[in-house]
Amino acid sequence: LSLNGAQELDALIVGAGFGGVYQLKHLRDAGYKVKLVEGGLDYGGVWYWNRYPGARVDSSIPVYEFSDPDLWQTWSWKQRFPGSAELRAYFVHVAEVWDLRRDTEFDTFVESAVWDDGESKWTIKTKKGDVYKAKFFLPNTGFAAKRYIPDWKGIDTFQGTFLHPSYWPHEGLELKGKKVAVIGTGSTGIQIATDIAPLVGQLAVFQRTINTSLPMRQVEYQDGEQEIPRENYPDFFRGRTDSFGGFDFNFLGRSTFDDDPEKRRETYENLWAEGDFKFWLATYQDLLFDSVANREAYNFWRDKTRAKIHDARVQDVLAPMKQPYSFGCKRVSLENGYFEIFNESHVHLVDVKSTPIKEITPKGIKTSEKEWEFDYIICATGFDSITGSLKQIDIRGPSGQSLQEHWKNATYTHMGLSVSGFPNMFFSYGPQAPTPFCNGPTCAELQGDWILGLMNHMRDKGLKRAEAEEESEKKWRELVLKYANATLLPTTRSWYMGDNIPGKPREPLLYLGGVPTYYKTLGEVAKNGYTGFKLE
Ligand code: NA7
Fold first, then answer.
1. Ligand 1: nearest atom to the Cα of 187
2. How far, CA to CA in Å, does 473 sit from each of 139, 218, 417, 419, 423?
3. What are φ and ψ of residue 158, in 5° steps?
4. Would you say the C-alpha torsion 391, 508, 455, 16 has a positive or negative sign?
5. How far apart are CA 89 and CA 84, in angstroms?
6. Which of 22, 109, 212, 336 is the most exposed place for a label (fewest CB within 10 A)?
């Protein structure tokens, strides 16, 4: 403790998801005095918060876990795509094997972080009133930490239960036989709707934009059996940085129309049958670049999907004949029977584009067409994604300028890890990095290793401060724009482009150069003595 009651640390990590726990383990092993603080009451990050029915990761294991043999040798998954409760159990296992609890503080929201130039340290304050002083401030707040609820009139007047899925009560919520609305058809909305459809009395799904969801192909494991033999794990984990999305697969080395129609059909069928994100990220290499190739993929998806739906009018809303946006340029989800729920007579589809939501009323939802009555309104309308997680903390650099001000009109980072004017602050899963197009744990590990490498370099050289140069930040933004503009992403409205939050600047929020190029760049920057950074 320092004189003013602040706890003195080498590094304060914020967030107990994959990024944060990885850094706690590895920084501590390297001899740093470090603490992890987390707003939730246990480990898991998004998996701590997202307890809604059907919550499930849509990356398969073992790609969606840490590469440390101490963990995977002592852990067996029950499903290829584990649910939220199993993921929380995994985090408990990680915490035990890595002995994390002694350096973790739960129920602790960080409110502000202010750099003190005299001391070359961050002063970090939490909602509970704790104060930390740390040389390094390491937010690992993920890309979905700030929930978004549209500003509908009348939300407060609703007499039933109105809730956002990432804030689901731990118990006591009974949906059986009830009238339920799910607003939003992102990954969250479709998972909930699929899961609760069999038990509720009436379900209405409010869709604004279609979800080009793919078949998940869930697998149940018996007696410790796993997707691949454990002796293959070390090679498997090494291979993740060779994959565009940090997975165990890559785009094909050929383009859509390199194949004749018959061969193309066969390729699509195979990718479809394999499940996972294969039809998105292991398909023809021009999918995200060429609109004609993209339409070909959409048409295949559309025909497969329409075949699952009985009613022609419902087909037209869920999988329209005319392609509404570039396939794969909004987050693709994985589904387990989502489209089939609309064949049930108690499940209704409300097309918000043709009948917009006007207001929330005491009884339910009023659209331009009619008033619906509900017991529950589940508002699966997403997050102020990527930048919102960081901007909700009052972060101020030496000049007193806040991160909110610095990013007011456009986002700037160097390598999606650091920001000029904010020394010794490094984040994972941030903007202009491969996440969220990249598998989470892959990015958590490679970014965590890089940050630790820089800290070690500074320790070895007796340096106090590392900060991205303004010029490198400008160049990184140009690179991010260049990669994005080469793709179809900017043609589509999505949270990847900041479109989902009213007033948010429209810009690509992710680095689309792929994990292999990103990994190589990070390695070169480190090898050359941290080019693009001011080191003092
Ligand atoms: P998403 O993917 O942002 O989905 C939010 C959904 O809510 C999406 O369908 C939106 O439609 C819809 N939405 C948002 N605002 C409105 C309004 N005002 N009216 C009607 N519908 C609305 O969030 P999720 O929680 O599903 O997923 C977040 C990420 O977590 C996911 O991608 C994975 O990475 C894990 P829109 O498409 O904007 O028209």
1. 26
2. 19, 42, 10, 7, 13
3. -60, 130
4. positive
5. 9
6. 109
- Average pLDDT, stretch 509-517? 97
Q: Kindly give the distance from the C-alpha atom of residue 94 to the centroid of ligand 1, in angstroms, as a whole number.
A: 31
Q: What is the average pLDDT across 38-53?
A: 97
Question: What pLDDT is attached to residue 4?
Answer: 62
Q: In angstroms, how far is CA 171 from the centroid of its own chain?
A: 25
Q: Dig out the tokens for 39 from the structure.
A: 């707003």
Atom 33 of ligand 1 has which residue's CA nearest to it? 187
| Section 267-285 average pLDDT | 98
Pocket test for ligand 1, best of 58, 153, 188 (most atoms within 8 A of CB): 188
Sign of the four-CA dihedral 278, 284, 287, 292? negative
pTM of the predicted protein model: 0.97
| Residue that is written with structure tokens 């918060």 in the block | 49
The confidence score (pLDDT) of residue 3 equals 53
Q: What is the pLDDT of residues 106-116, one digit of tens each?
A: 999 999 999 99
> Atom of ligand 1 at shortest distance to CA of 352?
20
List Cα–Cα distances, 389 to 8, 90, 243, 438, in angstroms: 25, 24, 27, 18
Q: Which residue, among 497, 493, 504, has the nearest Cα to 210 in the 3D structure? A: 493
Q: How large is the angle between the packed helices 18-29 and 84-97, nearest 10 degrees?
A: 10
Residue among 47, 54, 66 nearest 445 (CA): 66
Q: How far are the Cα atoms of 140, 196, 209, 348 from residue 376, in angstroms, in the given order? A: 33, 12, 22, 15
Is ipTM over 0.95? yes
Q: How far, in Å, from the CA of 76 to the mean position of ligand 1?
A: 32
Cβ contact 158:396 at 8 Å: no
| Number of separate helices (H) and strands (E) present in the chain | 15, 19
Burial zone of 73 (CB within 10 Å; 0-12 exposed, 13-18 middle, 19+ buried) = exposed
Calculate what percentage of the chain has a pLDDT beyond 90: 97
The residue count of the chain comes to 536
The alpha carbon of 166 and the centre of ligand 1 are apart by a number of angstroms equal to 12
Q: What is the per-residue pLDDT across 134-171, written as a single tens digit (0 to 9) for each?
A: 999 999 999 999 999 999 999 999 999 999 999 999 88
Q: Which is the closest atom of ligand 1 to the Cα of 165?
A: 25
CA-nearest residue for atom 17, ligand 1, is 150
CA distances from 239 to 67, 82, 232, 476, 516 (A): 11, 22, 11, 26, 10
Ligand 1 lining (C-beta closer than 6 Å): 144, 150, 183-189, 206, 208-209, 331, 352, 357, 380-383, 436, 495, 500
